[in-house]
Design brief:
The chain has helices at 11-31, 42-63, 69-82, 88-101. The chain has 102 residues and is an all-alpha fold. Helix 1 (11-31) runs antiparallel to helix 2. The longest helix has 22 residues, at 42-63.
Length: 102
């Protein structure tokens, strides 16, 4: 089982996960007719909740999928490390060399 690297988690990742969690809780509460948002009109509450869920789902899907070439390369490196084809120390050395040049 892989270890979770808490030091490598960014504040953006934590924020995205919290927003998604809030959207999921809000939608679940809406299913049980519990209004979380302080709006009298239930239709407006349902519309806002649905939009909130759609936006957060799309945002998290975009951020956590490998759509860009940089993220696809990073995923290939991650897979190579997991498969033992590439040593983690070698990647750290390479990153250190690129940081020294900047």
């Amino acid at each position: 089982m892989s270890k979770i690297n808490l030091k490598g988690i960014t504040s953006e990742a934590v924020t995205n996960m919290l927003i998604l969690l809030i959207a999921l809780v809000n939608t679940t509460l809406q299913m049980f007719h519990i209004s979380v948002l302080p709006i009298a009109d239930e239709d407006v509450t349902n519309i806002i909740s649905t939009i909130f869920l759609i936006v957060t789902t799309l945002w998290n899907t975009w951020k956590n999928r490998n759509f860009t070439s940089a993220s696809q390369i990073a995923q290939n490196i991650t897979n190579a490390i997991k498969n033992g084809e590439l040593l983690e120390q070698d990647v750290k050395k390479l990153i250190g060399k690129t940081n020294d040049k900047g």
